[in-house]
Structure formats: C-alpha cells, structure tokens
User: Fold these one by one.
Assistant:
Number 1:
Amino acid sequence: MAPGQLRVLYALDVARTQLYHFTATVIAGMGFFTDAYDFFAISLVTDLIGYKYYLYQAEVHIPRGVSAAISVIALCGAVPGQLVFGWLGDKMGRKRIYGVTLILMVVTSLASGLSFSKRVGKNVVAVLCFFRFWLGAGIGGDYPLSATIMSEYANKRRRGALIATVFAMQGFGNLAAGIVGMVVAAVFMKSDPSSHADFVWRIVLMFGAVPASLTYYWRMKMPETARYTVLVAKDAKKAASDMSSVLNVNIAPEDEAVNQLTRQGQYGLFSAEFLRRHGVHLLATSVCWLAVDITFYSLNLFMPYIFTRVGLLPTLKKGDNPFKLMIDIAKLHTTIAICGTLPGYFATVALVDRIGRLRIQILGFTMMSVFIICLAAPYDQHWTKPKNKYGFAVMYGMTIFFANFGPNTTTLIIPAEIFPARLRSTCHGIAGAFGKIGAIVGVFAFRYTEDNVPRTLFGLVGCNIVGILFTLLLPETKGKSLEEIAGEIEEQQPQQHADAAASAEHVQVVPV
C-alpha cells in the first residue's frame, strides 16, 4: 500500500479481476457501442437520403454543404456535450450524469428517424440535423463518463486493458452498423426505392436507440465510483460500504483520513497549481486526440466516397437500385470492421498493460503515417488494375488497424488516468472535445478537397507527426495507482503516510 493511500482505494487497486469488472466493462462499453453505431451509421445512409431528396436528372447530387452537415452535425454536438457533461460528472457525480446522457441518446436516436416536415427535402434534412446535434451531445457526454467510471473501478494492474475493452465496444458498434444496414436494405431490396428509401434510412438510424435503452437499468444499478465518493463527495462511510459490497471484503471507513486529505490544497482547473502540475498534460492529451480524430473520422465517414473514387464502389445514378449500393457499402464497412477495426482494439487490450500506453500511441501514429503515404503517393494508379484496387483496400484496412492499435484507443485511456479525481471527468471532456473539433476539421477538409484526395491524405500524415511530438510530453501510467499518477498521494502529510500504512492490514484483498 502506497504511503498516504486510503484503504478503500488500495483495495480497488489490488483487487483481482472479477465479475464486477466485467459487468462494469459491459455496461460502460454499451455506451461506446451506441456511440460508434450512431456516428458511423450515417455514412451508410447518406446516399439513400440523397437519392430521396437530391436526385437531379441522371444522378444523385447532394450539395457539398448538405453532405458535410449530415456527416458532421453529430460531431458538432459532441463538443459541448463532452465539455458540459464532463464538468457535471465532477460536480454532480459520474453515475447521475451517466443516466442523463443515456436518456438523451435514446430519445434523439428515435427522433432522428422520425425527422419529418410538411415540406420534404431540405426541411427534412434540417430536422434530421437538429436531432443529430443533440444526439452528438449525448454521445459526447458518454465519452468522459464511461472512461472515468471504468478507470476508477479498475485495478491498477489491468486498468489499461479494462478501459481499452470498454472502448473496443466501439468496434462492435461499427460492425453492428454495417450488419443492420445490410439487413434492412436487403429486406426492402425488391420494393420501390422512391417509395421506401425513407423507411430504410430511418430504421437504420432509429436502431441506435436499442442498445442504449437496454443498458439504462444496469447503469442506474451501478454504485457511484469510490474515488468520486471519497475524494470528491468526501463520504468515507458510503465509499467503504459500496466497495465492501462490490469486492466482498470488509473495508473500514476512514473519516479522519478523508477529512485531512480534503483539507489539503484543492487547486482548481484554472489555478496556477493546476497549470504547474497538469497544464502540459492537458495540452498534450488534447492535441494528440485532435490529431488522431482528424485522420480517423475523415477515413471512416468518407470511406464510401474514397472507395468509389478507386473503383471498388459504383456511383449511384438514376435507375440504379440504391438499396443494392447501400448493401455494397455496408459489406465494405463490415469487412473493414472485422479485418481492421476489431483486431486493432483486441491488440490494444492484450498489450496496453505490457508495453505501455505511450509506446502503443507512438507506434500507431507512425504506422498510420506509413500506410497513408502508401495510399497517397501512387493514388492515381490504384484503379488502373483490379489488383491495385484491392491493394488499396488492404492498406486502408491496415491504417484503421493501427489507428485502433494506437492513438484512437490510447487517447481515451490516458486522460482517464493522469488527472486528479475532482477534475478527471472535466479534463477528459476537454481533451475529447478537442478530438471532436479535429474530427469536424477533418470532415470539412475532406469534403472541400475531395477533388484532390492525395493532398488531403498527405495532410493527415502531418497530423500524425504532430501527434507523435505531443505524445512525448506525456507520462507513462501503466501499473500505477491513479492517486500516484495524479499526485494526490503527495498532498498528504507525513503522519497520514504512517497511519495509512499501519491500517493497510485491515483490508483483506487478493491481488491479481
């Protein structure tokens, strides 16, 4: 037991990996499942929306501004969602705000599919964008809360793997979007597209409410994290009671130790002390997340367009069956999820607590750059021969693999570990908001430079290099207590160190 560490937090750190860890992982992970489904399902139905409302003469032509708005509006909502709900998670508790974000996601997912207007076309798209903005706000709020809850529940030996497992549910959400898209389009394949296109895209978007609604009860059954209860709410008895029940051990409350701890200098987010201790950390986590999301969301949301340009997907024209094209897009989406996205997440889960967060993040940024250069340099030659097209697809899949076995996962893990408990959710929300700003920049940059894809891809390489440089400013966190990483233990007095060490024998826990 580290000097100055409370018994209840020590018990969490050394607890063996057990059922409650897996339960918390599934409950928190379903939020990311829903997030990924809602973010990426829109790329499957954008052409269908264009077929319904923007069919001009011989082909579908969605104005660039409209297409960008449909793709990016949920990301715009995620920025204030991460900032506001992240802050509320520190002020009102992770559990309470967790339920609010889930309800918001369920309601707005359903409302997105029910986006009607007396005047079809532009008005329907405007209503859709309104509800997807608020859907993005709920998704954005889920990021800091899910990551913070899992980091505060986890033991220190497997904390990185547990947070990575939660985030890996995003890969399954991505996969589910492809499968649902294929199934719904197949059901309507033989129907009249002009009459039933509306049903297909609405059903696909509304399905996002299902996984979120199924987990609401279990989210509300989870106790508040002990770290919030004892370090922020200052309720030692409740923290000891909750964790005694969860861990099945007897943990005595430490009222005096908690009172002494909370009387120490509790610096705020905008204080000079925070700037000295964690200013560089907040800057580095924010810039790294911004850099990776520019690349990750650009490649994912514009995957159908990229593969259309290299000849692996056809262009939708008048007389074509839009449901068949949607199935083709969903197949490609699903294949990349199975071959690139999920293996990347699994590799991180397996190795993050062995080789460390920073090595994985640097490796990911580096390999993404290598494969993007391989996509961009011979870009004009990729559609000249069939084998070139499939080589392009393989390199694209490897880019996605190293995004997930790399910064797309580690940028979520690190902010959940390096900040103090009273500011953890807020700082995670700030870093995540920068990530979504990066995603917005990437989407608009790609949309308005789509006539010169190689130049855009080389721009993504530059983003990766920036990510590598700022990763070097971060500390390695594997195998350490959250209080040790954030410097909270250092705030205690020498007498508390001795008292805490002497009392450690009262905690009966089994290390991993």
Number 2:
Amino acid sequence: MQLVSLAQAGHAVTSDSLNAEVDFETLQLPTMEGLDGLLAKKKRVAKWAPDRNGSLMLSSGANWFSSSKSAKKVSSNYVTSIIDGLKKLYVKKLKPLEVTYHFSDFVSPLLANSDFDAKPMVMLLGQYSTGKTTFIKHLLRTSYPGAHIGPEPTTDRFVVVMNGPDERSVPGNTIAVQADMPFSGLTTFGTSFLSKFECSQMPHPLLEDITIVDTPGVLSGEKQRTQRIYDFTGVTSWFAAKCDLILLLFDPHKLDISDEFKRVIASLQGHDDKIRVVLNKADQVDTQQLMRVYGALMWSLGKVLNTPEVTRVYIGSFNDRPINEAPTGPVGKELFEKEQDDLLSDLKNIPKKACDRRINEFVKRARAAKIHAYIISHLKKEMPAMMGKAKKQKRLIDNLEDEFVKIQKEHHLPAGDFPNVEHFREVLSGYSIDKFEKLKPKLIQAVDDMLGYDIPELLKNFRNPYD
C-alpha cells in the first residue's frame, strides 16, 4: 500500500523505493477509485445466488447457526450443502436429545464438525499376515510412513493413512485432540489405546479422496487374551461406524476364524452393507485347491455372519509382484485381474457414495437416539418415588430384556433397532436410574420432524456434491 501511495504522489516506483528517505507520515493514503460504487452495487444484489453446481452460496454477513424458534422446516437459504445442513440439524434437533439422555455414554460420543467434514474411510481387518499393510502399499503404489511388513504380527497399532503436506507420523494422543480431525471420540478408550494409535500422513492423489485405516492383525489362541491392553473390539466397532467400507482379508492358509476375530466380526453388526471379503494371496494355490479354499471360506463366514445373503468375496493377490501363473495358469490370471478391477472400481465409487452414506449414518443415529431416550425414560418411570430404589434398580437391570419388550410394545418399535442388552446392562450399572430424565415429548417430536420433513427437504434442494 505504501508503494501505491508513492506512485499516486508522483514518486518513481523502483526496488529501492521503500528504502528511500520518504516521509510516510505526511504521505496521503492510497485512493481506490470506484470502490464505493462497487460496494453499493453488491449491497443491492440478493444475498443468495446459485453457483455453477446449483448449490446456494452463503453471504458473508449471514449468521449460519441462527434460526427461528417457530420454524419447523430447515430452509435451503440457511445451508450451503447437504453436509452443512446435517450439521445444523444435528446441533438444533438431535444433539439436545442425546445430551438429555446420556446417549454418548451408552452408544456413541457426541459428533463434532470434523465428523461431518471427514473424508470417506476404508478399514482393513484380518488375522495377522493376511496382507493388510501390503494391500495398502499396493493401492498407493508406495509405502506409507511407519509401515512394517513381515510374516509375523508386525502392525501392532491402528494406523490412519491420510493425505498431508509431507510424510510424517503423528502420535495418537496428538491426533485425538486436534479439532479438525474426526478422532476425538477415541479418547474414551484411554491412554492405553492412544499409545497404540497413530496417523501416517503423506501427499498422495488417492488419499485426497479417501482415508485408509490399517489395523493390527487379529490374534488367535492364548495371545488374544494376554497381549491386548485396550478394548480391541470396542475400537473396531467405533471405526466401523465411521467407515464407508470394511475389507475383511483372508489368507488361503489361514481360513480358521479365531475367537477374537469372531468377536470383531460380531461387533460389525449393523454395518453389513459396508463389509467386503477379500481372499488375498490366491495365486499361492492351484485351481483345485482354490475351489476348496473358497468353499471352506464361505462355510466359515456362514457360521459367523448371521445373514441369509451370500457375502461378496473378491479373489486375488494384492501385492506389487506380478501374478504367479504357475499354480493357476492363464485362466486363474484372467480371473484375478477381473476381481481386482471389480474391487478397485468399488473403492473408486466410495467418494461418490460418501454423501449418501453420511445421510444414512445420520438417520441411523437419530433412530438409535430416539430408542435410547424411550429406554432411559421408561426405566426412570419404573423407579419408586420414595423407598426401595436400590432394590428396584437391581431388578430392572437384571430383567432388562423384559423391559426392552415392554418398551417395544408400548411405542411400536422394531426389535432389531434395540441396543445389545449385555452392553447396555454393563453401562447402566454405573448410573443411578433415579437421576435420569423423564420422557420429553418435545425433544422426540423435534427428531421426528427432522426425519419426516427436514432431511427430505434438504435432499430435495441439493444434489450430491460428489456428482
């Protein structure tokens, strides 16, 4: 600006102008001709104008979280995209219900803005030495910082591989407290877990669209009881709720599903649509053995995944080496290439489906919060007013299954939407039921309005931003 003032005052503008002996105190401020007229013209323009994608751009003066108490529906004038609309709906209508009935302690931590803005995530699960880290290296065409590959259980921690300006590893305690990262909920698992969690950042075009979660190899036998210093199944369940795709990796020589792996797969209940199975290292067996291995894998999965549908299994060898044609021949090579192409196309579609997945998870959360409110308020209603509160609480906790059936019949709720009884009982035992809140119909009605009116209205006004 000093250079502009010098030029308007008639001084020659050179590289040494600012070093010259000029009295800047008496120098006039630079004049910007036409600026006042331009500002006046902009004020006359409507505050909202559609951009090239058809989305509405928010004017800088609009207060984005301000809302009218009487408005039941969210106007499209207050949101710039579907994700921003979900943020507003969560703060205004769903979060009050979650806070009132301690939803974060029983089911899932409260959501922050970073949870809505996070990139789509892909999680890899499997027993040790099934090729999870090698699979990530195959996708990225390079190794990520801190990657260890070997026949023994080498990955001993949860590693989030995401895009960053340079290659570096960030410790778990640091990444969990960063407001712009969607991992603050992991603090509930304690320091023992955070010491086994890290974020690996590197610049990569694939990581600009998705984030990959590498997990420790699932153990078997005595190891699975002695070597975990944190709730492995709980952490897996937390990531499963956040992820857009879950890949279960199997090795032709490791088809037995250990007890820990069985518990991990059971913790994925409710996320069946995200699960894909990968039979890795398939070029290590011949065609006849591969046929038997595939049949044995489907039989093992049928005992663990309690679904009548057949799970999609991708067969291939996901590493940097060329496919070994010796055991399977050219037919096997062609099969592996087609399967790999199918899996890669599935991965490429993740960003396109991310917005729909976000809405799907949001609606699931809203329904879970509603049922949780009914459960908590029902238990509160069953408590006596004066005497025998401790005995009544113990009876309610012991007969929790019967109470769930009562709630289901009273409010006409689907049985499949109720939480796991054992987990709910375990958390409930640490609370005094008498301190819970009674049912507040206004909070329930707000969530019903959100599901019935606001979200459909939001989807009608905005297209998928990933299209």
Number 3:
Amino acid sequence: MQGGTDAVRRVWEALRSHKVPVSAFWLQDWVGQRETIIGSQLWWNWEVDTTRYSGWQQLVKDLSTHHIKVMTYCNPCLAPTDKKPNRRRNLFEEAKKLDILVKDQHGEPYMVANTAFDVGMLDLTHPDTAIWFKQILQEMVDIGVRGWMADFGEGLPMDATLYSGEDPITAHNRYPELWAQINREFVEEWKSSRVGKEKEDPEEALVFFMRAGFRESPKWGMLFWEGDQMVSWQANDGIKSSVVGLLSSGLSGYAFNHSDIGGYCAVNLPVIKYRRSEELLLRWMELNAFTSVFRTHEGNKPSCNSQFYSNQQTLSHFARFAKVYKAWKFYRIQLVKEASQRGLPVCRHLFLHYPDDERVQSLSYHQFLVGSEILVVPTLDKGKKKVRAYFPVGEASSWQHIWTGELFTRQGSDIWIEAPIGYPAVFVKAGSIVGETFLKNLRNSDIL
C-alpha cells in the first residue's frame, strides 16, 4: 500500500480489528510521490522520503514488534531529482559522475522515456555498478527494510552503448538476469554476515520479487510477479490473463509467481475508463489466495480503484482470504522445496498431472492445480455465481468441495458449481493428508 506513515498506521489498525494475518507492509512510495499525467508516480531516487514517512524508524520498530516486515521498492533506473525538495542524495548525479549509466550513441547518459518522465539506466555490465548498487541496498536494509520489489529490467534500449561493448540487442535479454543477480548476491552476502540463529532463521531473511526475466532469471530471482494487468475481467490483459501468465510461466521455470491483487492499470479518461470494481477486487483476492504470494496493489490511480481497506466488506473479505492463504502455508513450504528439487511450479496446469486426458489440454485460465492436491476453479467473469469445473481422468481419489464437503467421483465430467462471492470453487483430494490438514486449518481459523 501507499500513503505515508499516518495512512499505514490507520490501515494497520483496521487490519488488526479484522484479525488479518499480516507478514509485511509493502510500501512502494517510501521514496516519495509526484503527480504525473498517468497518475501518482514515485521519485526514482532510492532513499526514504522523511516527509512522507516521518517517524520511519518508529514505524518499522512498531511493525516489527508484531512480527511484520517492511518492504520497499527499487529498480535499475534513476530519475533526476533536481526538483525534489527533500532529497539528501541525488543518485542520478552520483551514477553519472561514476560513469556507470548506460550511454547513447554520442557517449552521453541515455535518457530513457518512462511513461511521464525520463530516467538514466544503470549499466549492469560495468564492474563498478554492482558494488555501488549493493551499497544502496545495504542502506535500505540498515533502516529496517527486509524486502523489496526489484522492478523493471526489461527496458534496455536496442541502440544503447554498454561498458562491455556487447551488442545491445543481445544484452537486452541478459540485462534482467544481471539485475536479478545483483539483488540475489546482495541477499546472500547479507545473510552470510549474520551469525547464529539469525543466520539460519527464515524469519530473518531478505526477499525481493521481480517481473522481468530471461533464461537464467529463476536461478537468481527469489520471487516473480506478472507485471501490470488492467483492472478488468479481460482475457488479454485482465484477471484471466493473470492465470494464463501464472501457468505458462510455471512451465517456463518460474516456479514462484503471482499477480497484483486487483490488477494495476486503471484508465480514467473521458472516453476510456477502467476502474477497479469491488467485485473484481474480491474475486482477485479469492484467486490469489491460491498463488505463491498474497499481495495487494493500489494501482496507478488509487482513488479510482476499490481497495482492500475501502469498506467493511472489502476488509472482511481480505481478512477471510488472507486466512485461507495462511491455512495452506504448510503445503506451500512443501511445494517450494519440491520446486527447488524438481523444478515443478507451485501453481500447475492440469496436464502436468493428467497428461493422458486430452480434455485438460483445452483448458486455459479456467482452472489450475496447487501442487497436486488442491484444485482451484476461480470465478473470473463479472456477475457470475457459478463456474464449470472439470474433474480429470486418471485420479484414484475423489475431489472434495472445501465449503460443502461434497465428493465428486465422476472422472472426465464437467459440473456446474455454485460459487458465490466468498466461496470460490476449490477442491482437495478426499482423504489426503494435505486436504485434511488444509480443512483443519480452515476450521481453526473459523473459515469453515
């Protein structure tokens, strides 16, 4: 979320009143915001804005007391900050003096157009760049940051000049791998500097998530997300596409992926309007409760969008599905280990487990598996209260509806399932240890 210290504390209080399990506040606007033609955008100068986040250290300390981490945002670009009133450092100018920015064909810093402003890109092929940027990350961690979105990485211009002298078209695909590598190396170096329990405790680890990548990105990246969907029901760039991206990326080696709950891109022009409806937000919560990461985003135009904190309905729904997400944490840990050993994604297309069932090959965003034990048939259409579930051929056990307990034993059958808001069509393998543990955890959280 965004908004500054007071906004965070206000929303945190609302979350506590709804008993929402929170592991982290991701404060994207920690660097401060400015208004541009596309909405509220960040100052790309990677230091805390002490005006927007006054009392930063106390906020971090108070959240930590409740075992809540603080996450922030950065990317490999730097914006000139001459007009930013309260900056302490001008990282763009520092990088320019160090000569570690990507150059244009005239040997000058290549100013890349990014939506409403121009930025310089770090030349990740320069040997001094990683050293310098790791110092930036160290300063983030020193003020209490324990995770961040390592954004972008996909925008290296095709006519850029690099320190390495390599063809920029070839380097374009290598750039996000280098960006991931720098972040991962810092995480590992920081961990190696810890001692005793702190070094081994996963609760004390750092984490970052990315969107851009290439062949070796899963080697370096810790988590991925799918970029900026429209706040819509569309198949080409809305909630449906987030499922397509989730499953296809899983087949491509990206085992840990997720999307912004509610989507990101809103449009509020006189002729074209895309605004996040409450129904879309609620359904996206239901969907993402069964992905690797359950994380919201206010979007590029927060005031146009329904948010998890908008009203009692959205808060209650958010609390409900945060608890659903927490209820299969035990299985998520198991699936993460399996991914590291075998490369299988957390969220899977059905044909990975039912390769002989030709019907599953025609399924796209319609349904997916979490591991092998949970079957999710999300509601992805406006106003719909039923979904059509397909139960694949080749399963020894029945599928059990988690809300009603009804067993579905007919393999190779399509069945319409009631799926009102708050009760998405989700099934577990009847009698399985995973299924029984998941249901027990839901009962213990008063979800069932």
Number 4:
Amino acid sequence: MVKLRLKRCGRKQRAVYRIVAIDVRSRREGRDLRKVGFYDPINNQTHLNVPAILDFLDKGAQPTGTVHDISKKAGVFTELSLNQTKFN
C-alpha cells in the first residue's frame, strides 16, 4: 500500500518536510517512490505537485492526517472531485 506522508529534512530545530509517496512499510526517512511536495512549517510555505498527488490518489494512495490537511488547504480535493465528475 502507498501512502502520501511527510519526510523530515533540514537541521535541528529547523525542520522542513518533503511530501512523498512511499510504501507503508518503509521508515520515515526510507526510500520514497516520488517527491510530490514540500512543506515548511516555520515559514508556513507549501509547494505541491498537484497532478502527481491526484495521480497517486486515483491509484489508491492514502494520505496521512497532516498531508490530508495540507492538501485540503491547497484545494487538491476539490480538483479531485472535479476530475471524477468530469470523467464519469
């Protein structure tokens, strides 16, 4: 099973996170399938590759709670629902 989750980067007390698609059995810093975004909680910056996220969600990937919240604020799920209604 594939999950969309955070991968910690940066240095001590200055954590930044990559949003990655990764196998559920891998550890947090394990090998990811693809990098799909970036999240900086200190500066409150987010960069998302929305087409890649939508592709993984269509294939059945499950986002973690934090990634779900970040994606929801960015409007990824509204695009997902628009794409599903367009193709149905």
